[in-house]
Amino acid sequence: MAATYPQIVLFGDSLFQGAIEVSEGFSFTAALQSQVKRRFDVINRGFSGYNTSNALKLLPEIFPPAAPGGPKLEYLFILFGANDACVPLPTNHQHVPLDRYKANLKGIIGHPNIAAHKPKIFLITPPPLDQIRLTELDLAIGHKAATRHSTVSAAYSQAVREVAAEQGVGLVELWKTLMDTAIAQTPGFDPTQGFLLGDPAGGLRGHLEHLLPDGLHLSAESYRIFYNLVRPLVGSEWAGTPEEARVGFVLPEWREAPWLDEDAHLADPAHQL
């Protein structure tokens, strides 16, 4: 039987779909795959435009039932909410009410096709929103108003925190980390004034301009910050061991291969790659 690699699955909307791209020399998905090379397969299941209702309905087509000899889902990172948090408009139908959003997240976590693997699950708070920039772009393509509001999006991120605590799963605090970064890089901004960066009420984008170029999607800088949040969550199986130990390799390191004696000539330094 062929060797199967355990999987790390990135399940979400365009924020995960875009994680596979290379921007300014960095790719979130590639960085994670490099971290776990020969130990896990990183599977990108990001779907632009999806909300949690779409994801839950189509989940059986995305995650097949566990099967003997099939790959094990070891880690599951879930990032939905940017679309659920859309405000209801005649020109946009992505909105999912907050209570339904929370129920959908619980439905994804507990779905039999996922639960059978007993993976390590991490919910990710959707990132902040630069409503000032997003409003400009929304109006330019024909919407009568902004499709998303900063304070509404923040409420959906809070819902993720609550679901993670209720369900006993991990939490990746992307919203707070990016907002804290933006505040720290925006001289003179006082977060105690009662409005968020990117909120039209305050009229200041600050460093969100660099973290969220279109007001919604992540820049390379943001993806690097995101990866630095995820990196320590994966690899406890071999953390602290010498790299030479090759702990967790699905197939043996070549020096430890059972056929080495049969192919002793490969030990010649001239043949080492």
From TrEMBL:
Molecular functions per Gene Ontology: hydrolase activity
Coiled coil region boundaries: none
Ranges where the SGNH hydrolase-type esterase domain occurs: 10-225
Keywords for the protein's UniProt record, in alphabetical order: Hydrolase
Pfam families linked: Lipase_GDSL_2
Name assigned to this protein: SGNH hydrolase-type esterase domain-containing protein
